């Protein structure tokens, strides 16, 4: 086997070893015999150096005209387009999801790059009339400073792009800590930005653990913005640290996304949508369809059809174009799935398909689990309430739209939801009453497009949105500017009344 490549931290435009000289290996979750790369196991000293570099670069970058920053992003987007296939392959090797999905992940970064590049010529502010004569006023977006970005492994390029690109277009600089399971895709994305002409120090990468890198990064007094995607448990810790330091904090966390299926739904469409929503990315999406809330009149037939399709899904190494579902990301995630299968069984749910880890033949070297469906799930069972982040779908039976919406909303999360129906009244009710940041009609809970706001209610986040122009609010501050050209002192609230 050839020697795996070594990746260094990127600090101030230079690739450097960690201060301690320690490294870690990253392996392919479909075949752990393959080492994808050796990465730096960094600590506080590396974070300190990266933040200093980002702070230095900020003095320059914030003054580069936004349309010029946009031009660099346009170039980077074009490079991503050229390198899409290679990066998708790298991503399948490091993350495990199938090629068509890793191509989609790179595409999402391309979309974001073009979108934010265009924003360089907008970054719209507002002008408003003054209460007084001969006075002009406006509000403009300002960059905030150094942004600390902590990104997950399930969308190893798309999610980093959602954070890096809006941060940069506004004029901030960044230090990113990629998930230790998928740092390579962040290096690939950042390489395009460097090749497109991003100056030294504007983007810095520090790899390593959450405790040794993530924590000092978010605590650093010179880091003004923290954008985090990951678990609710870590997210609430990030929120506390951010609150102490008076930082902008954007959190994107879990989901327990429901798909409501009414008795008039087109079941062919539902089967396609539910299989894609539940088992795409091996269920490892915050937006994954993890609860199917089906009307009693069709639940029996639907369960059978879903079980039949799930049973026939081809599982394996995502580099094989015929494979439909890859492995879990790592041993611990696989164990979580196994644990929830046991929990579901012990809670009295009916296992209709799957439930087993695959260990024979080539599967022995990866973290493969069968797509799993439980029926007769009760709304308050743990498998109906807790995020599993794996290929497990819970089917809950209901008798009416009202009950379906009530069950759908009765979880601690609120990211995405869906309804399948041909009844326009039911669809509009659901659109209004489903308490999630994203609602789909006759489509599964996954598949958000980057130019709409992405995020959720309740335990899913802290009210911010990624995607859309709304993301700019995370990475900018509003400045209100008053220009008095009257040549006299005009006292607001006094001289004009
Ligand atoms: C995630 O699950 O963490 O909407 C992100 C989707 C993708 C992004 C998912 N565009 O499913």
Automatic annotation (TrEMBL):
Entry EC number(s): 1.2.1.3
Organism whose genome encodes this protein: Roseiflexus castenholzii (strain DSM 13941 / HLO8)
Subunit structure comment from the entry: Homotetramer.
Domain Aldehyde dehydrogenase as annotated: residue spans: 15-481
Pfam families per record: Aldedh
Single GO molecular function: aldehyde dehydrogenase (NAD+) activity
CDD domains, alphabetized: ALDH_AldH-CAJ73105
Keywords from the UniProt entry: NAD, Oxidoreductase
Active site: 252
Protein name: aldehyde dehydrogenase (NAD(+))
Family: Belongs to the aldehyde dehydrogenase family.
